[in-house]
Amino acid sequence: MNVFQPLIDSFKIFLAEIGDLTFFSIRFFKEVFKSPYEFNELLKQCYNIGNKSLTLVLVTGFIIGLVFTLQSRPTLEEFGAVSWMPSMVSISIIREIGPIITGLICAGKVGSGIGAEIGSMRVTEQIDAMEVSGTNPFKYLVVTRILATTLMLPLLVLCGDAIAIFGSYLVENIKGSVSFLLYFNQVFNNLEFSDLFPATIKSFFFGFAIGLVGCYKGYNCKKGTVGVGLAANSAVVYTSMLLFVIDFIVVLITNIFI
To answer: How far apart are CA 172 and CA 70, in angstroms?
Structure first.
């Protein structure tokens, strides 16, 4: 028996999964431009995804701003560079920390929720019933959710970035008596287009990846109710890995062209 056979089988399964996910995404791009357009369902999903995730994103962003500033301030004090704190915190959060942390939060909350919701509809044959009744379940369930995550994640990232920078300001105000106006003047004076544009673009890709993987896992759910849990769990794992891959690619392209 080949000792590498389990590894080879796992690699084959992984490649098959990538192929199925690719065909699933191609079907999405085909369906998204076809009528009828489910605007009401899209607005509903945008509200659900944005509203249900906003509080968690704001709380997490605020704590990140506090902790990041508290951890960085003693080091900058040793070199007499505390005045660089606003620019350092804002650039770090907007370029990298804000988008990736918000993406991971939404992968855990939104991605798993989508996978479990669509997976439960699959195992209870609700999707089959929609097909029999003449409704396009892919259009109604998948396209609307992927579009909603793609549109809402950049807004969540902006909210998370803003509250994180505000949390950083509170620490600076308590530790160094820095005024609100002075702090945010330094923040905006040091931000450039090359900081905001790549972070915003990759936020759209993060949202698309979260919706795509969650819908794919739920839509292809099997093995009854056990499969629903597997779909939700694997949606989080696959999405988290995909977010880091997308982040690496965007940073690499950014460093080359900007």
So the answer is: 9
Cis peptide before 154 (omega within 30 of 0): no
Backbone angles phi, psi at 178, to 5 degrees: -85, 135
User: Residue 137: is the preceding peptide bond cis (ω within 30°)?
Assistant: no
pLDDT tens track for 213-234: 999 999 988 877 788 888 888 8
Contact between 190 and 89 under an 8 Å Cβ cutoff? The reply is no
Q: How far is CA 116 from CA 45, 129, 204, 225, 243, in A?
A: 15, 18, 23, 10, 20
| Number of neighbouring beta carbons within 10 Å of residue 238 | 21
Interval 80-126: pLDDT, tens: 878 888 888 899 999 999 999 999 999 989 999 999 999 998 888 88
* Three-state DSSP class for residue 23: helix
For 136-152, the pLDDT digits (tens) are: 889 989 999 999 999 99
Q: How far apart are CA 207 and CA 150, in angstroms?
A: 4
- Distance from CA of residue 125 to its chain's centroid? 29
The tens digit of pLDDT for each residue in 29-74 reads: 998 888 888 889 999 999 999 888 899 999 999 999 999 999 888 8
Q: Where are the strands (E) in 106-214, listed by range?
A: none
Strands (E), the chain: none
Give me the amino acid identity at 232.
Answer: A
Residue 42 to residue 44: CA distance in whole angstroms? 5
Task: Please report where in the chains the tokens 């972070």 appear, as a residue.
Answer: 199
